[in-house]
């Protein structure tokens, strides 16, 4: 009995030691974002500010505007904010310092991925709460939950894309690309303005963009007239394809950066 008790105690202690780095690094990453006013303002609050402007200006389209801005918020946090954060830390040599610690790549990237998803959820919740209180959006609780759910799922492939961009170039290049791609993908997917008023060339390219398919998931969830003729599963399948491709590319970019610095 004594031996068994000692073994159980040792197992619990080992598990606790393994869990401690995850919880502490998660806490540090979360505090780093929340203590950065620009990150809170633009990463979490920007979609809500846009909704207060456009949702009140065009109240008849407030529900469609909400879904589009939810997709934009999920995209900005998971792609733009994530890639810039990784590239900046690489430029500061933070990844080299962490290499001297027992921290594993899975702990580093996994914790960052989790924090980005949680940050995106906070941004979405703020947007949904403000939209509900604003009075121009009337949906059932199931519809609100569906919109939040599809946005969280859509953040996964976009976060993987952010990891790839964050490791592929310098901090300056990543910041420029993330900002430029953020604008192009948002406008080119109809998240800000309807695609019907965009040039024909953009309308033809849009269905192949991840942000377009994320926006479509949102519009389908709320029953918006902005949705196209494709079923829900087609848009979901496109995002799954992006997730698979950029999961491979992210691993390649990370290993390339590791070999460049530590080989």
Low-confidence stretches: 1-17
**Helix content, binned percent:** over 70%
The tally of strands reads: 0
Strand content: under 5%
The total domain count is: 1
Structural class category = mainly alpha
The global form is globular
- Total DSSP helices: 10
The end-to-end span amounts to: 50 Å
CA radius of gyration = 21 Å
H-E string? HHHHHHHHHH
Q: Give a quick account of the main beta sheet: strands, pairing sense, barrel closure.
A: none
Mean pLDDT: 84
Describe the protein's architecture and organization.
The structure is a single chain. The chain has helices at 2-34, 37-57, 62-92, 94-99, 105-134, 141-168, 171-188, 200-205, 210-222, 232-262. The chain is an all-alpha fold. The chain has one domain (17-262). It is globular, with a radius of gyration of 21 Å. Mean pLDDT is 84; it is low at 1-17.
């Amino acid at each position: 009995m004594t031996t068994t008790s000692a073994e159980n105690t040792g197992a619990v202690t080992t598990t606790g030691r393994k869990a401690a780095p995850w919880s502490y690094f998660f806490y540090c990453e979360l505090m780093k974002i929340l203590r950065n006013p620009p990150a809170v303002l633009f990463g979490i609050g920007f979609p809500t500010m846009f909704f207060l402007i456009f949702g009140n200006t065009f109240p008849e389209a407030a529900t469609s505007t909400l879904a589009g801005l939810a997709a934009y918020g999920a995209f900005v946090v998971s792609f733009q904010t994530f890639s810039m954060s990784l590239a900046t830390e690489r430029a500061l040599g933070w990844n080299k310092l962490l290499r001297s610690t027992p921290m594993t790549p899975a702990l580093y990237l996994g914790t960052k991925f989790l924090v980005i998803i949680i940050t995106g959820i906070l941004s979405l919740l703020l947007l949904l709460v403000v939209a509900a209180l604003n009075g121009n959006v009337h949906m059932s609780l199931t519809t609100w939950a569906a919109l939040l759910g599809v946005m969280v799922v859509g953040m996964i492939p976009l976060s993987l894309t952010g990891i790839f961009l964050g490791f592929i170039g310098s901090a300056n290049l990543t910041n420029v690309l993330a900002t430029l791609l953020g604008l192009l993908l948002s406008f080119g997917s109809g998240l800000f303005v309807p695609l019907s008023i965009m040039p024909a060339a953009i309308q033809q390219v849009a269905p192949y963009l991840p942000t377009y398919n994320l926006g479509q998931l949102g519009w389908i969830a709320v029953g918006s007239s902005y949705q196209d003729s494709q079923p829900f599963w087609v848009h979901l399948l496109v995002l799954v394809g992006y997730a698979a491709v950029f999961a491979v590319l992210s691993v390649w970019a990370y290993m390339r950066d590791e070999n460049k610095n530590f080989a």
